[in-house]
């Protein structure tokens, strides 16, 4: 994985400059990082968000954050992200495309297991989205910054049930999703 510390610092600084984001990011014991999807990997993995949608006019910023559990062996059960949206992801003029809304939910929900793998509290086995049911509540106007939250609801064997919600700066729910991620039996 290619990580560019200057790009990571710039993305985090971008959100620290937005007052409502800075307030949330000032909470104690937060682990803040650039989204896993933002840095380039071999074989075009995550190319949609590391390259195609990583422009000033599409998604100019995407960071994740969570509260560090007191027990280092405990799973992180909630992950948040700030995502900035430009106008080149619109469906209607000034309104984010529904497919991008679903992409944001899928990405942040899918990063919850990834965080736990990196922390060593979950097996490093690939997971894939089995389903993602999305409810669109309000149009997401662009340009804007949203907060996406994912929560682990339950785990049954290889199945991880995760809920997600997209909120605006006032805490209004814009969209929500329910997903099932399944741990694969073998690598792709």
Automatic annotation (TrEMBL):
Origin superkingdom: Eukaryota
InterPro entries listed in its UniProt record: HotDog_dom_sf, PTE-AB_protein, Thioestr_dom
Gene3D superfamilies in UniProt: Hotdog Thioesterase
Pfam families on file: 4HBT (PF03061)
Membrane-spanning residues: none
Start and end residues of each Thioesterase domain: 93-174
Listed PANTHER family: THIOESTERASE DOMAIN-CONTAINING PROTEIN, UPF0644 PROTEIN PB2B4.06
Official protein name in the record: Thioesterase
Species whose genome carries this gene: Rhypophila decipiens
């Amino acid at each position: 994985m290619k990580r560019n510390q200057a790009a990571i610092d710039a993305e985090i600084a971008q959100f620290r400059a937005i007052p409502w984001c800075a307030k949330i990011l000032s909470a104690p014991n937060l682990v803040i990082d650039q989204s896993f999807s933002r840095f380039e990997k071999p074989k075009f993995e995550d190319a949609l968000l590391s390259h195609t949608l990583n422009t000033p006019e599409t998604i100019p910023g995407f960071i994740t954050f969570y509260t560090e559990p007191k027990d280092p062996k405990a799973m992180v059960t909630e992950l948040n992200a700030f995502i900035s949206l430009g106008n080149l992801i619109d469906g209607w003029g000034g309104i984010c495309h529904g497919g991008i809304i679903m992409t944001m939910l899928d990405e942040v929900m899918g990063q919850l297991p990834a965080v736990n793998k990196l922390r060593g509290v979950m097996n490093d086995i690939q997971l894939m989205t089995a389903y993602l049911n999305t409810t669109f509540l309000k149009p997401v106007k662009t340009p804007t910054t949203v907060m996406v939250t994912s929560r682990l609801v339950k785990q049954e064997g290889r199945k991880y049930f995760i809920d997600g919600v997209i909120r605006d700066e006032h805490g209004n729910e814009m969209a929500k999703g329910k997903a099932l991620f399944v741990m694969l039996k073998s690598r792709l």
